[in-house]
Amino acid sequence: MNSSDDRKIRALQEQAKQIRRLIVQMLAKAGSGHPGGSLSSADLITALFFGVLRHDPKNPGWPDRDRFHMSKGHCCPLWYAVLAESGYFPKETLLTLRQLGSMLQGHPDRRAPGVEVASGSLGQGLSVALGMSLAAKLDNKEYRVYCLLGDGEIQEGNIWEAAMAASHYKRDNLCAILDYNGFQIDGRIEDVMSLEPLVAKWQAFGWHTIEIDGHDMKQILEAYRQAKTVKGKPSIIIAHTIKGKGVSFMESVVDFHGRTPNTEETKKAIEELG
Amino acid sequence: MAELLYQRDIYGKTLVELGKAQTRIVVLDADLSSSTRTALFAREFPERFFNFGVAEQNMMAASAGLASCGKIVFVSSFAMFVTGRVWNQIRNTVAYNNFNVKIVATHAGITVGPDGASHQALEDITLMRLLPNMNIIVPCDGPQTRDAILTAARTEGPFYIRLGRVKVQTIEEKNMFEFGKAQVLKQGHQVTIIACGIMVAEALVAAKNLINKGISVRLLNMHTIRPLDTEAILDSARNTKGIVVCEEHSVVGGLAQAVDEVVAQNHPVKVLRIGVKHRFGQSGEPQELLKEYNLTSSDIEKAAYSLVS
């Protein structure tokens, strides 16, 4: 680790704080939505958008751009925040989240610049990313495809169909990111429908697995770097995270999967993220 | 005797033709490529063909990813497995995004035959008709299958094209195919018969018999179910005594109901339905099944006759 890496990490940590503030603010304004999972994957996706992804917010249709797809669409406040911060659309737009006529729908929609494919019905996004990854191969393009998955989401059978096909077709330009925060709407993953042994499952499906602390910026960057070097198989970053990370009273509180903060809570959250 | 062709043979050949002309054409199948005839494309363009194995959900959602990158994606399997089985993938990821995904289903309807109810899709048109953005074509014969496939390839947006398993006779002397416009096969003023798919051939026999009995019959081949040719339906409602709608499909939600909706809201006349009425299918030979489910030319003839007598 040299000093330029240190600077990059510090800058990304600051950026992630800003992203978290935007998430809390837009959800408070919207009055409904999903803070828990947006906050738990904030470090992973901030690192991706501001340190890894090759994209051009002024030219969203650039054919060589890396693709990102958020399969767990309910965490779109995070997607919208990184898109706005990157310059895809004005930040003021974030405060229209979930309003009638807004480009920022309650679940991702192509009306929002930077959103390539709608999502919201869980379990389909890894297949979408696989399709993008196959298109890159057909067009002899170098772009990579990143796909954010939720842990509850991978209980969907469609995910495992995609997992099987991605390794069958040796999609080494495909990198999945699993936000393993351990909670789903009805409670703890291990109580509702346990996923373990999770690393072994992905390995058995032919994937290269990278297990990290999903809030450690250094580990996150290293995971993306490692995934790029893997040949002949897709990679998955299995990131251990904390639901609601960054706001003390939301952390690991299942209620904040799908409840937004009230005025008092918002004030407190923004102070903490200050 | 008119020419007998497998619609799926024509589908496979047309895919090859399209594949030669355009590199954007990509074809997906789920382990049924020899039956759907996408194997013909796979042989010519192996790099642009993807077999997803027995995993239709993945295939359908992946088609959206490919389409988002500019591909024109043909997705095939049996009608049973590429509609209801993957309806949410079609709804949320294909139709909602308005992607260039062309679902070409083979083995639709009761004439799947001996495989029985589990494989006889009688609800697929309904399921597709529910979806905004979705275009629907049910071609009546081999040549029209080519027209439908070429139309889907050059028209933006999602398509559902419904093909059968058995050979169908080519309907001679029909005008050029025009997407969204009914083909008038017989022009008449007493009663109208509207049919799609294999029922067009049955309807033609019925129409000829009625004409021989001195009845003036109008026969429309409603190959495009979305966008529906409401003008042709309304003209029939206004200028004939009633309409018989024929489809190898459930009477709920398919062509008959589409015609009903137009007629009931604009110019109510009697609409009789030749279709499968609240029953699952069963094993049998195609011709036996058409008879068992009252889908023959004589059923159509009787219904049409009842409207004028």
Question: What do you see in this structure?
Answer:
The complex is a heterodimer of chains A (274) and B (309). Chain A has 274 residues and is α/β, with parallel strands linked by helices. Chain A has one domain: Thiamin diphosphate (ThDP)-binding fold, Pyr/PP domains (Rossmann fold, 3-Layer(aba) Sandwich), CATH 3.40.50.970. Helices cover 42% and strands 12% of the residues of chain A. In chain A, the strands form two sheets. A five-stranded parallel beta sheet of chain A has the order 1-2-3-7-6, with helices on both faces. By secondary structure, chain B is an alpha/beta fold. Chain B folds into two domains: 166 residues, 3-Layer(aba) Sandwich (Rossmann fold), CATH 3.40.50; 126 residues, Rossmann fold, CATH 3.40.50.920. Helix content of chain B is 39%, strand content 22%. In chain B, the strands form three sheets. Chain B has a seven-stranded mixed beta sheet, with helices on both faces. A five-stranded mixed beta sheet of chain B has the order 9-11-10-13-14, sandwiched between helices. In chain B, strands 1-8 form a two-stranded antiparallel sheet. Chain B is globular, with a radius of gyration of 19 Å. The relative contact order of chain B is 0.13.
Query: What's the total count of β strands of chain B?
Result: 14
- The CATH architecture of chain A can be named as 3-Layer(aba) Sandwich
How would you classify the quaternary structure?
A: heterodimer
- Order of helices and strands of chain A, N to C? HHHEHHEHEEEHHEHEH
The number of distinct structural domains of chain A comes to 1
CATH overall fold name of chain A: Rossmann fold
Structural class of chain A: alpha/beta
CATH topology of the largest domain in chain B: Rossmann fold
Which regions of chain A have little confidence, pLDDT < 50, spanning 5+ residues? none
Q: What does the secondary structure layout of this molecule look like, with pairings?
A:
The complex is a heterodimer of chains A (274) and B (309).
Chain A lengths: L2 H28 L4 H6 L1 H10 L15 E4 L5 H11 L38 H14 L6 E6 L6 H12 L5 E7 L2 E2 L2 E2 H4 L5 H7 L3 E6 L3 H13 L5 E6 L22 H10 L2
Parallel strand pairs in A: 1-2, 2-3, 3-7, 6-7
Antiparallel strand pairs in A: 4-5
Helix pairs in contact in A: 1-3, 1-4, 1-10, 3-4, 3-9, 5-6
Chain B lengths: L3 E3 H15 L3 E5 L3 H4 L2 H6 L4 E3 L4 H13 L3 E7 L8 H9 L5 E6 L17 H6 L5 E3 L4 H13 L4 E4 L4 E3 L13 E4 L4 E5 L3 H14 L4 E5 L2 E3 L3 H10 L2 E9 L4 H12 L3 E7 L9 H7 L4 H12 L1
Helix pairs in contact in B: 1-7, 4-5, 8-12, 9-10
